[in-house]
Amino acid sequence: MQDSGGSSSGLPKRFEWESVEASCLERWNLASASRASEGEPFSMVVPPPNITGRLHMGHALNLTIQDVAARYRRMQGRDVLWIPGIDHAGIAAQNVVERQLRAEGVDYKSLGRDAFVERVWRWKESIGSGILDQIRRLGASLSWDHERFTMDPGFSRAVREVFVRLYEDGALYRAERMIHWCPRCLTALSDVEVTHQDRDGELYFIRYVDAERPEDSLVVATTRPETVVADLALAVNPEDDRYVAWVGRRVRVPMTDRTIPVVTDTTVDPGFGTGVLKITPSHSMVDFEIGQRHGLGALSVIDERGIMNAQAGPLSGLPLEKARVRAVEVLDSVESLVRREPHKNAIGVCYRCQTEVEPRLSLQWFVRMAPLAARAREAVAAEEIRFFPDNWEKTYFEWIDNIRDWCISRQIWWGHRIPAWTCQDCHHLSVLRNDPEVCPHCGGVNLIQDPDVLDTWFSSALWPFATMGWPEETPDLRRFYPTNLLVTGFDILFFWVARMIMMGLYLTDRVPFRDIYIHALVRDEFGQKMTKSRGNVVDPLELMERFGTDAFRLSLALLATPGRDIRLSVERVEAARNFVSKLWSAFRYISLVVPPGTPSLDDLASCRGIANRWILSELARLQTAYREAMESYRYDEGALLVYRFTWSLFCDWYLEATKGDFERDPSDPLRIETAGTLVTVGSILLDLAHPVMPFVTEELSRLFEFSNGCTGTGESPVLAGRIPEGWGEPFDRIRSMVGSVRQTRSVMKIPPTQEITSALVLLSPDAGDPAALWPFLERLGKLSRSADPSLKGLRAPFRDGYLVLGLGGLVDFSREADRLEKEILKLGEKIAEVSGRLSREDFVRKAPPEVVEKDRGLVVTLEEERKGLEVALDQVRAFLGETP
RNA sequence: AGGCGGAUAGCUCAGUCGGUAGAGCGCAGCUCUUACACAGCUGUUGUCGCGGGUUCGAUCCCCGCUCCGCCUACCA
Questions:
Q1: What's the pTM?
Q2: Residues 608-637, chain A: which have Cβ under 7 A from strand B?
């Protein structure tokens, strides 16, 4: 690069991200093993993806945000630990392997427990690090030497320790309770594992006749006629005058030969249906409670698979759906069905398989939540933990304040086995850290371990500290716990976030993390949730391959406005790709004009070039705004700032404005200064862009041998405070002059390439030195300086002067006249608005003086501007007169 | 039923600690000017959801309403 000609080819013409990404990834994997343990620690744990998973948009967004945080902190010199890992995903994984077996014609039950679990492990090994590899490709700079699995030996020990400790503290109990049961997964679920779906159903009105006087009857409205056979009472509200006479009487249950009492309960809503509620304690949460209050006992008619059992009379042997149809037929045939009407209601379904859940009475393990929740509430209330955005606090409190005990036992095989043994001899229940040989109570050898496993989320709740070696007092725990930041989606706020807080406080006496960044859901371009059944799932890997990973990450970062769902469209990724190209080509240009090894500016204060001063002052502003955005987790804003600076200021103005400098002699001081400025700005800019676009920025930094954060070879200087006030002004004036010329040029349809002879007239001494202005006007406005001081032509006005464009009579001036008229009208409206405000006595008296001052100044400026335009318009009209 | 979020240019969305309303995409015109056509220049469009209130001034704050999304909830 000896001269500005093309003797050197510079960078490749296009950013070849395929190969660049590959070599970066290789380097990073090597680098992660040797983390420097200096600097203030900064730690995060990744939300462990399910072992069953494949990288989806949610992961991509989640990891991009975390990686931006990690890289940003790393560049600040922090010692970053970001722990990767995978969740064993109990029910989900069990389902996958069950399906595989079924495809082979094998019922998993017939395999037996040990063989089945073995099979799941084998499957786990066969997937290998599938999803983690995909995470790597995203550029996520995790601490790979810290990878964990929720069922690895250390983690399993931690889980068992927690279980035992909770039990010993009385925070854990086993009891027979109503729980949500999935008849397909054949296991209990916790409250949060049940999601609600609105379904169109029917309300059936059923007649129950008086046991003594068959002519009297009550009508009950129900959505579940199949449970009539399990009715143990009818209930009315004690305040309900319509039914006072019925209380204490007995009615006959249709389809059976049983009679049941009519009772009162205040929870019955007189306004719903007929005001009479049928009570089936075994198959409804509410009814169970009412049943308890009235000592009704239990009658179960549905088995664990959702099939009506022998107690179900005419419905016996039917699955629930068919049982309902049958029940209606039977009721109708015995004239018990009064009528039916359409009815919408929300039914609970299993979050793993969408099967309707059944309330079911069974023996399960529960965590007593109230005490844990109290501390968890306090931690957030006292701002030991902060939500970003903070409105999630409300949702969090809402749940915490209405917490119910957590059912943690699952009737599946894949997961952490519950460490509880029952002695067959003395019936003593032992909960133990180590598998027992004999009963600790009686010494008997007939011990049977509880067959259940723990809710997957029970182990997930330990993630922030168990991954660091808890319950051991490890160096990692001492140095990195509590973690600084948790990044996750709102959909697992209760499943995961709240429980980590509770367990963290309970077990480590400290919050597990300080800040929680809650991000939104990624939807498709129409705002629909991406689901397999809709077929609108966009594969992140596909987008990465098509547009490059940097572009993909940038598009996510730009779209990640807090508190708002993201609509991802290919166009947005395309736009981001265009930006990456732009960035690349800008640096290609630099490589063509700046000799290799050019140092940064060593003394900013001695910088003289108008454009150089301007870009430095703009960069200083960018740095400040960027820092503010990044520190408040506004990564979207940080990315946008970089985007705008790069494209609209650096490329559109600065690079164009300084091209002339490189036509000067290589030893020219301005040329040298501009080269130094390019290096300074370029290097800092790459650092700012690096957290979001790690590949392209590192590649460019390496090619240019910058000592900056991208390559880990230096730190970017902070410009704020080092750039004198007003350094940007002269070039800003040039920008407005050029803008005016370009407008006129465009309206007159003069090709951008056609040079126009012009004269510069400055009306104010602050407007600048013509000799300094002309080189920029020539280049940016494609003007040539006229020697004729009385040059005639169109005026392109600006704040304190105008340019005379010597166009001759060759063009159509009426267009320019139209434009100017429009412009003048617009300005007039604005002036009227502001001066109208100023003429109101109220405003001048009550508004802050600086606001009034600003408006006064504004009117003056606007009027000056208008005057310039008016003169220009006169000029055009004169031309129009001359050239009819 | 309660809670949260949204309603701003044709589309997707920023934004304003209350004081001349922005970007990307699109559209129109002119340009292949050796960094970039994945580009440049210029232009284009807004009762800032509706109704009140506070204020000198509201798109922004407060109250109410309408629509859209989501979450929580034992209305059978």
A1: 0.91
A2: 637
